[in-house]
Amino acid sequence: MPKQPGLFATLYTARALRRFKPDPVPDDVLFQLLDAAIRAPSGQNAQDWRFVIVRERAMLADMQRWSETPWQRYLARYGGDSTAIDALPRSQRLSLRSVEHLVHHLAECPVVIVVLGLKGRHSTPGGSAFPAVQNLLLAARGLGLGGSVFNFPLSHEAELRERLAIPDNNQIYCVLPIGYPTDHHGPLKRKPVKDVVYLDRFGERWPFAERQPESGWQERWLDD
Question: In the predicted model, what is the mean pLDDT of the chain?
Fold first, then answer.
């Protein structure tokens, strides 16, 4: 295993990466990701999460084809012209271009993990699945892999269920493409805490956060 960054360095640099090298993800690395995922808390300790590992090329090719449906709906906002994306602010543009790349290259992804949970098991659907998802993505970052939540294949959920033999009593919560990235993890640009956190009631500014740097505290945890 490569040397892993510390916890806070991982948190402050875990970008959503969607372009992958063709290198396979070894079984021992994949096991570590999933072993980390199941350490997450779950409501009533139900641990009803289930994960389907998809490596079969034909299945990934179908998932790529299904991903075209929501991508085309998104492009319709721009008159079907993908070059209109280039006029967006840089952060939006880069994010959308990486999504576009994944839409057209999902079949080449080393591995895709489909995350499930029992229907009706929790009062907040997904509330016990997504902590496991975050554990998995942070573990991926720690081991030098990239990934993100990518639910475009769910536009054809019935077909996906049938092909993966997913029981009707399981909800599909998300799809996670995972691989060794061609892009790089690094510092994240986010809205400052003071603009998204309130004290005691919505809209009430938090004085402590008002005094902190716009970039937050990431400099404490990241090397120059």
Answer: 93
